[in-house]
Amino acid sequence: MWGSLLIAFYLARDTVYRWLTRMSSPLSRLCVVFFLSLCGLIFLSSYVISIKLLRQRIHRSGADLVIASEFVSADEVHRAGHSPIPPNPEKYERHLFHEAFTTATIGQQNYQLVEYMPGSTRLFPRRLHNTIYLLPVQPTQKSLPEKLQLDGYSLQAVTIPEQTSGMLRRLYQSGAVFIPYGSLNTLWQNGYMRRYVLRMKNATAATVQRQEQALQQLAKLDKRNLHVMSSGKLLEELGEMERTQYSFRVWVTLGISVIICLLLTSISSLEFRQNRYVYALIGSFGISRLLLFLSFIVENTFLVTVGFVASLAALWSVREYITGVLYKSPELTLDLWELENDIRTFCLAFGICVLVSSLPIGAAACRPIGKVLK
After folding, report:
1. What is the pTM of this model?
2. Average pLDDT of span 330-340
3. Which of 115, 128, 236, 370 could cross-link 98 (Cys pair, CB 3.0–4.6 Å)?
């Protein structure tokens, strides 16, 4: 036992001595792993950012919303009516809006007029009830009073701060004036649009498309002219893109690993050729050749690990530059856990690289000592 520890200590000291006398050997392996891994991680992070940008745009446009609209003619009574869509709090939130064929005027700007139901008051500032609200064209950060002209009347509305607009901004990107149900009955004599809005609790491509198909089937059964819209198709395309990118990213990772493997094998072979006489003499003293082979595996494992960890640290330090400067999206964040699958693939591939790059050394270590020293 003590003899094995002394041999291991001697081999470790010999390795450090070789590194100090020929710095090019460890530095070349470190630099190969570091720069190729860093370039690969930056390249792969671009796909992560592109998917996040696309997902962000889809969700801003209402990825979790399923909207059904129908025209209500002038001869129908203006009322909240019996909704053809049953409530289902476990799957979605249900909201109903009436959109008038008239506009409200604030200064020189015309706004769409929308009537909201009592059950939708939680979409607005909670401290105000049965109030006229204004979602301005230009987002504002404060809740301020605004005077508007509507059907010959001068009324006062309260602006909705952008941070609390939520779903309303996604529905009415150009702004709107919201009035409580039953406040102005004369506006609906020429007909209006009734809009059902479902906010899905679990907005996946499957759930959104399933709800969209259910509404279309319901419209056929009730013989209603419902126009149904959703982002189900976009979510499905996003999922397909993520799966395609995942396969491509795996191949990129493996390709970089193969290059690193070839370079490590070449460098390790040159390293062993320069020291084959020394190791032949060490072997003649009775030191196990397996121990010599393991020493090279440990050496390569240490250098590869340090190089890869350094590349991860470098990526972490420049992540804000990548998102803020290269992609002009400072609101996005890039975390290492988002590259978890790529990092795991790199680690697995590097483990194989270390073993493969040590095979020539193992073959050389098995050569008879007499053939090496003659």
Report:
1. 0.65
2. 82
3. 115
